[in-house]
Automatic annotation (TrEMBL):
Family of the protein in this entry: Belongs to the mitochondrial carrier (TC 2.A.29) family.
Keyword terms: Membrane, Mitochondrion, Mitochondrion inner membrane, Repeat, Transmembrane, Transmembrane helix, Transport
Lineage: Eukaryota, Fungi, Fungi incertae sedis, Zoopagomycota, Entomophthoromycotina
Annotated TM spans: 206-227, 315-338
UniProt xrefs under Gene3D superfamilies: Mitochondrial carrier domain
Gene designation: LEU5_2
Organism: Basidiobolus ranarum
Protein known as: Coenzyme A transporter
Subcellular location: Mitochondrion inner membrane
Domain of life: Eukaryota
């Protein structure tokens, strides 16, 4: 039965707003907010963080090797430390003795460690940030510092033995152009100790210098994320043309390549300055077994006294110029790669 036209109400007729609305708006799907606790989100963050860490470490691997040699006062390379050209002279010495392979000695151990380290760090950072930041307005640099510090502690705890193996491999000066392998270094560390019986392993050796690492990673990771967030906010506020596109309702606009690299580089330099004395002390503790395998135990206090006695206050900043040369591109590439992969993987 048809309804008479006189009985048709205006609510039954299509509104003029719907009739005149652009077809593209009617067809545009509503984007749901991502579940940051989901396995899918965590896996994508893990992949992005791991790739970012490997890319950054590969760029700075030769400088990283030289810095470790300087920090740990390797007697063969101590003559080069403390001068501007020292890094280049040391690099030349390594290249002449072992070729390009020498500059990347220990790099495989670095990649084995850095992929899970960076992956866990960024996953933990996103999860901790999600817990303490509930809106875009509440996303302050201070909360980034807290999330970054907790993320750094989480990643260090999971990957510290691989870090120790890497440092020891980088410290050793190879004979006949060939340095120790990962497994050889691993076995040697486990067997170190004055009262060690033949065949006995000391698992505690794999966490030598761990306390110092935790003390150092809090300012290092926390300050890096804090500074990076602060620099991004300053660029968004004062240089809006350096951002890309319109932000989504729950996201801040992304930065263009150059400002993103600058933000990451400055974050690395600031974090390095704040945490460097702890890092120098930690390196000396880590290589103790290589210097004296029979007496591989030394407290942080003893190492601090030893550094101050031999080189004074400047001893805690040995290799810092190399640290800047290394950490600035390291963090620039790391944050840049991570931010771009977040874009690609829709994180």
């Amino acid at each position: 039965m048809n309804t008479p036209a006189s009985q048709v109400t205006t609510t039954q007729l299509p509104s003029s707003q719907i009739l005149t609305a652009p077809l593209t708006k009617l067809q545009q799907p509503v984007k749901t907010k991502q579940d940051k606790k989901s396995l899918n989100y965590i896996v994508r963050t893990f992949i992005a963080g791991g790739i970012a860490g490997c890319a950054a470490k590969t760029v700075v691997a030769p400088m990283d090797r030289v810095k470790i040699l300087f920090q740990s006062s390797n007697p063969h390379f101590e003559k080069y430390s403390g001068t501007f050209w020292g890094i280049f002279l040391a690099g030349k010495d390594i290249y002449q003795g072992a070729g390009m392979r020498g500059l990347f000695q220990g790099h495989m151990a670095t990649l084995l460690r850095i992929f899970p380290y960076a992956a866990i760090k960024f996953v933990a950072y996103e999860q901790f940030k999600n817990l303490i930041v509930h809106s875009k307005a509440g996303e302050t640099p201070g909360k980034h510092f807290i999330a970054g510090s907790l993320a750094g502690i989480s990643s260090v705890f999971c990957t510290y033995p691989l870090e120790l193996i890497r440092v020891r491999m980088a410290y050793e000066v190879p004979h006949n152009g060939k340095g120790p392998g990962v497994y050889e270094t691993f076995k040697h560390i486990l067997g170190e100790g004055k009262s060690n019986a033949k065949g006995k392993i000391n698992l505690g050796n794999l966490y030598r210098g761990f306390t110092l690492t935790i003390l150092g990673v809090i300012p290092y990771a926390g300050v890096s994320f804090w500074t990076h967030s602060l620099m991004q906010d300053l660029i968004r506020k004062h240089f809006p043309l350096q951002t890309l596109g319109n932000p989504e309702s729950d996201r801040k606009p992304r930065l263009k390549a150059i400002p993103e690299l600058i933000s990451g580089g400055i974050a690395g330099a600031v974090a390095q300055t704040v945490s460097y004395p702890i890092e120098v002390t930690r390196r000396r503790v880590q290589v103790r077994g290589a210097i004296n395998p029979e007496n591989n135990r030394a407290s942080a206090k003893e190492v601090v006294k030893e550094i101050y006695r031999s080189k004074g206050f400047r001893g805690f900043f040995v290799g810092l110029s190399i640290g800047y040369l290394k950490v600035t591109p390291l963090f620039a590439v790391s944050f840049y790669t991570y931010e771009r992969l977040k874009w690609i993987l829709d994180i």
